[in-house]
Structure formats: C-alpha cells, structure tokens
Amino acid sequence: MGKGKKRPRVPEQAAREDPEGEIEGFVEAGELYLRDERGVVYSSERDARGSLVTVGHWDASKAAIIHSAPAAVELPQTGLAPPPSTPHPPPEPLTFEAFEEDHCETAPEAYDHIVGVLHALAHRQGVKAEELRIYDPYYCNGAVQRHLAARGFHHVYNKNEDFYVAQASGALPSFDVLVTNPPYTHPHPQKLLDFCVACKKPWLALMPNWVCTKDFFHTTFSLEQLSGHERGARRGGSAPFFIVPRKRYHYWTPRGRRADVSAGGAKSKTHGHTNAALGVRTSPFVSFWYCGGISPKVKTKLSPPDGCVLAWSQDSLPPGVQER
C-alpha cells in the first residue's frame, strides 16, 4: 500500500511532554504502565505524536492506580447504513484456487454489529474511522469494501490475491485490524486463527459455531482462557470473545460465482432469495463474530450491539448457538 496522508489524532486523554526525573514501569492487572516520581501514571503506549498519555495517579496507600475519568466518546453500536441498492459487479476470475462452496459474502447487517468495536479501535489508535486500516485477506467479490464504506470505514484492503502466497512472501499490507469471513472448508479457519495470533493485531472473524469446538481452537487458546477463568477474563486477558446475533446471519453468493447455483443444480435449491445488490441468499451455518487481540482498555468501552449478545467467554455463549 502506498504512503497515506498523516493520520489525525482523535482526542482521548491528556497527552504530556516527558516529565523530568525517572520513569519506572510496573504491571497492574496484567497490563504495563509507567509512573513518574510524582506518582503520575501513564499508558505504556504513546500517542501519535510520541507523547506520554496520562491515565491516572498512583495511590500508595491502596497500592493501586486511581484512573482519570476518560473523555466521553460516542461509539456507534450499529452502522445504520441503508440497504445496498446498486447491483454488485460481475465476479472476476479468481487468481487462486478455491472451492465453490466457499463463495459466500457477509451480510451487511453483520457489519452493523461490529461498528462499535471498530470505532473503539480507531479511537484507541488515535485515528478517525475512515482512516482505520482494515484488512480482509480472503477475497470473494469485494463486498466487504462496499459494506464497510457505507458505514464510514473507507480504508479497507481486500484484493483478488492469494492470502497465503502474500503471507509467505512477506507482501501483506500494513493494517490496524483484521476483519474477515474466511472460507469454512478445512484448513482455512485453523490457518486464519494461527495468523491472527501471530500478527499481534486486533481481529474479528465471522465463523460458524463449530469452529470453537475443534481441537485446533482449543490448542490455539487455552482452556483456562476459553472458560473465562483467566484473571480478568471478562473484559481483560487475551482470550477471544464473541458477538452473537439473536437472528441467524444469512450469507450471499455473488451471482455467477457458483456454477452449480447458476445452472439450477441441486445446490440452487438450498439458495433462496436473490438480490441484485448482494447475490443469492443462503444460510448454511449458525455463525457469529469471534473477536481477539483486543486490549482490555478497548473492551471496557464495548456494550452489546442491538440485536446481539456479547459473550466474554466460550462458556457464556447462548445455548441456542452452541454446537450440539
């Protein structure tokens, strides 16, 4: 990706010049902080200008941080974008091999449910929503760019290229957060989760309920994390959490992408309503958003999106979506 314009800072908490005297690092609740000789406590992450960011002060009598009240920030919970009306572009030949059953794109309403998370991540990065760099490594027909742009996120990288080849050659784009609906055939979910953990970036992946029952999921994330027993796991820790819709998500196959659907074969009977802007509707799996790599400070800003349950651990997933 080419060089972009300077990324503007979104005001968060007061930024300060480096104080005189020594600054020491310390850990509280599993997170690193900095403290100066006066007891002022700073985030371990500097702002976009390289300045320290004050988060509170040290109370020696309680041996704890007294956090400053954060600036009020409105985090939209839904995108409220109008339904797409422009016919989707004809599918272009893919530059990589793919199974036809994997040719499905995410429904627009599923993106509504992660708008709040994306705004919180942009705020944490110190950028506006339209400057947040979003990466979807799996290409189908480019709907992710159209749907996220309609919700105010215009910096989305999703190209007709082989993710695994780009990964192996070191040609991946720079990004702030990964948002994707991967192919569900083996071994794509496992390879995606391996990448998500290795990249050390926030990630949101729309995947079926059966993914969290697989051995590879439990080896990627410890049982202690998944059960919510990790210290501070409700909104802290490193375990993934889940955004679960109360109404089952549909998927959309771009018209012309699947030969067996276009030709009126057996699969066409399982694909229902057709929409010129989205394609042919199907709903093969119960699915929800798996979310990880997100700091506790961002998690504290989150609340359940309209029409969703926010499950902080696998044990707290609603019974209706758990794989039987």
TrEMBL record:
Name the Gene Ontology molecular function terms of this record.
methyltransferase activity; nucleic acid binding
Q: Which PROSITE patterns does the record associate with it?
A: N6_MTASE (PS00092)
Region annotated Disordered sits at 1-23
InterPro entries, sorted: DNA_methylase_N6_adenine_CS
Please list the GO biological process terms of this entry.
Answer: methylation
What is this protein called in UniProt?
A: Site-specific DNA-methyltransferase (adenine-specific)
